[in-house]
């Protein structure tokens, strides 16, 4: 009997060891079979042109690690270059790894508005999952598209510095939509569009991130459907050398609501166009026309925002339809340096800041 128990214990230990052992993938053709394991290492994988690195269909609890350099073949297509879907998934990078999209092959200064058809980078549909310690370089257009619930993203570095001089455009860092309970923390984004673009979602925390060179940290419900943004905190972030610092941009003719959004302890440095902007007339080609009244902005708190705007820029701009700004609380605003005067409207009486 003791021998039988010992044998059964030994078999169980062997099975557990097999389960725990990682499966290394060096060729994308090995990936489907590797999904039988709960620990996958993607090492120096070259993804063929026009094909997604498909991390869907993973078992709950799977850990995926990037190792070495991941690259992608060139083709004009919409992508995404990587996609994932599942529950309880961990995606992370090992020391020294790099996901190099070589975006310059697609860049033409037009982003998603024309020219070459450019693949989006990473489409995420997850629940109860985390993504951490990823190093990403030169995405073609649009970075992490985040949908799902209970997702933790930390220590992700998006380096699109080359896009500043080589035609990068619409290289958003994090696009969040139809999401709930999302935390994005301690990330670095150097890009040519929004660092964060939050189109719809609830209970979103964006904290201690550095955004450089892009269009700032944006609350952005601007679609035709009813976009709802609620319970958002942007805390302890820095926006450096960017076109815009922080903004709430509701789309012209859009429908939805923005409620209970807080920007707190934000540093702005060398902002070119607008330090703080809230506007209700956004179009993808830029703001234009009178603001529309489809998206009320309620309980907007902006506290302890400080820094400088370059001389030709505007420190603060508020341009929303009458009655759309409700219960705002702004305090400790110290944004200066800009001299450009702009049209303002819709500012609540209790918000004691000067436009321009």
Describe the structure.
The N and C termini lie far apart (85 Å). Helices cover 8% and strands 49% of the residues. It has helices at 2-20, 31-34, 163-166; strands at 23-25, 39-43, 46-47, 53-55, 63-67, 69-72, 82-87, 90-93, 98-100, 120-132, 135-137, 141-154, 157-159, 174-185, 188-190, 196-198, 201-207, 210-212, 217-219, 226-235, 238-240, 244-251, 255-271, 274-282, 297-309, 314-319, 325-326, 329-336. The protein has three helices and 28 strands. It has a 28-stranded parallel sheet that branches. The protein has one domain: Pectate Lyase C-like. By secondary structure, it is mostly beta strands. The protein is globular.
List keywords for this structure.
single chain; 356 residues; mainly beta; Pectate Lyase C-like; 28-stranded parallel sheet; 3 helices; disordered N terminus
Summarize the structure.
The chain is mainly beta and 356 residues long. It has helices at residues 2-20, 31-34, 163-166, and strands spanning 23-25, 39-43, 46-47, 53-55, 63-67, 69-72, 82-87, 90-93, 98-100, 120-132, 135-137, 141-154, 157-159, 174-185, 188-190, 196-198, 201-207, 210-212, 217-219, 226-235, 238-240, 244-251, 255-271, 274-282, 297-309, 314-319, 325-326, 329-336. The chain has one domain: 3 Solenoid (Pectate Lyase C-like), CATH 2.160.20.10.
């Amino acid at each position: 009997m003791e021998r039988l128990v010992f044998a059964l214990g030994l078999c169980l230990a062997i099975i557990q060891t097999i389960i725990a052992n990682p499966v290394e993938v060096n060729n994308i053709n090995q990936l489907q079979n590797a999904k039988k394991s709960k620990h996958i290492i993607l090492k120096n994988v070259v993804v063929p042109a026009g094909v997604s690195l498909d991390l869907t269909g993973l078992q709950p609890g799977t850990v995926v690690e990037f190792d070495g350099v991941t690259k992608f073949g060139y083709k004009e297509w919409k992508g995404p270059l990587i996609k994932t879907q599942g529950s309880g998934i961990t995606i992370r990078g090992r020391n020294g790894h790099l996901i190099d999209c070589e975006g310059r092959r697609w860049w033409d200064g037009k982003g998603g508005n024309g020219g070459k058809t450019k693949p989006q980078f990473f489409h995420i549909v997850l629940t109860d999952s985390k993504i951490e310690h990823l190093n990403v370089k030169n995405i073609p257009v649009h970075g992490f598209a985040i949908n799902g619930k209970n997702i933790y993203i930390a220590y992700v570095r998006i380096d699109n510095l080359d896009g500043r001089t080589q035609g990068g455009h619409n290289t958003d860092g994090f696009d969040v939509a139809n999401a709930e309970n999302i935390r994005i923390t301690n990330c670095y984004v150097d890009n040519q569009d929004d660092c964060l673009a939050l189109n719809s979602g609830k209970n979103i925390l964006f904290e201690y991130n550095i955004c450089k060179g892009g269009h700032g940290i944006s609350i952005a419900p601007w679609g035709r459907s009813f976009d709802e943004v609620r319970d958002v905190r942007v805390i302890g972030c820095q926006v450096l050398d960017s076109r815009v610092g922080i903004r709430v941009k509701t789309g012209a003719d859009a429908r939805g609501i923005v409620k209970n959004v807080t920007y707190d302890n934000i540093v702005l440095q060398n902002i070119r166009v607008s330090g703080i902007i809230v506007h209700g007339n956004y179009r993808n080609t830029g703001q234009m026309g009178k603001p529309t009244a489809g998206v009320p902005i309620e309980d907007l708190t902006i506290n302890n925002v400080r820094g400088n705007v370059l001389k030709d820029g505007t420190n603060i701009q508020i341009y929303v339809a009458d009655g759309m700004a409700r219960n705002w609380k702004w305090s400790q605003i110290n944004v200066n340096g800009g001299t450009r005067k702009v049209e303002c409207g819709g500012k609540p009486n209790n918000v004691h800041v000067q436009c321009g």
